[in-house]
Design brief:
This protein is an all-alpha fold. Helix content is 73%, strand content 0%. It has a single domain, classed as MetI-like fold, CATH 1.10.3720.10. Helix 2 (56-62) crosses helix 13.
Length: 294
């Protein structure tokens, strides 16, 4: 049987990669470069074309109090959702990994919020938070507590959205932890039991270090989810009251599609992508070296 020339095999490999390469350039790299260029131009309006404004859009962003409010809200939102969703996912995975009655049902119940559409989830929780007759109001009413508008109060609006995000994300992250736990050698548990190690000691000294690569992967996804949250905000609060629950992506959506200021929206997008890129580089090149055994 004659072998193919090396050049023919190389051309065939590039042709196989071509569709994915075209999609990557068309829908990822080109939009990113185009957005960067648009951030240095004004927004075209009617017969007036876009003109070069340099860093003016970024100066407007730095002077925009709504942007800084959204950035602060997003920071608090991330600081709450990332550890809570990861911690809850780990606890659920450890529980359903044990040989307990109804383990299959529990796994399905924990994962169900993940497969629900985000808009549907937001509408379900909208009913929970509805003042007067919502499920949460009925529960608090049993204890004689006064009615409260959870989504209409500046003190609780962001926290209410945070609870919804954690409820939806924890089941998704649980699947990765459960898969990692099931891939661990069962002899480790037997050896620890023979040595008299407690469950807490076994988890802290053996399981948790071995789960660190999975934790890094889950953390990256949690950071991305914390920044791209917009569906729940649109349905539940629309950023209110008084921008108390406005997140960066919702502010970007409002600027770009409600006020149609594409130049300013492009500047916000560039800053958002730069922050995500910096976080991703830190996670891959700093944290990644600390979680894998060499």
């Amino acid at each position: 049987m004659s072998e193919r020339p090396a050049g023919t095999a190389s051309v065939q490999a590039y042709l196989l990669l071509l569709p994915a390469f075209v999609l990557l350039v068309a829908f990822t790299h080109y939009p990113a470069v185009a957005t960067l260029i648009d951030s240095f131009f004004s927004t075209p309006k009617g017969s007036r074309p876009a003109r070069w404004v340099g860093l003016e859009n970024y100066e407007v962003m730095l002077a925009d109090p709504v942007f800084w409010k959204a950035a602060t809200n997003n920071l608090w939102f991330a600081l709450a959702t990332i550890p809570l969703s990861i911690g809850l996912a780990l606890v659920m995975a450890l529980w359903v990994n044990e040989r307990i009655a109804g383990r299959g049902f529990l796994r399905m119940a924990y994962f169900t919020p993940t497969v629900l559409p985000m808009i549907a989830v937001a509408n379900i929780w909208l009913f929970f938070y509805t003042p007067g007759y919502g499920l949460l109001e009925q529960i608090t009413g049993l204890f004689g507590l006064p009615s409260h508008n959870w989504l209409g109060d500046q003190r609780t609006a962001l926290g209410a959205i945070t609870v919804v995000a954690v409820w939806k994300e924890a089941g998704f992250f649980m699947i990765f932890y459960l898969a990692a736990l099931q891939s661990l050698n069962p002899n480790l548990r037997e050896a620890a039991a023979i040595e008299g190690a407690s469950r807490w000691y076994f988890f802290r000294r053996i399981q948790w270090p071995l789960l660190m690569p999975t934790t890094l992967f889950v953390m990256i996804n949690a950071v991305i989810n914390a920044v791209r949250m917009v569906d729940h905000v649109v349905v539940l609060t629309r950023g209110g009251p008084d921008n108390a629950s406005t997140l960066l992506l919702y502010h970007l959506f409002t600027v770009g599609f409600s006020f149609w200021d594409t130049g300013y929206a492009s500047a916000i997008t560039v800053v958002l992508l730069a922050v995500l890129a910096a976080v991703a580089l830190f996670q891959f090149f700093v944290l990644d070296r600390k979680v894998h055994y060499r």
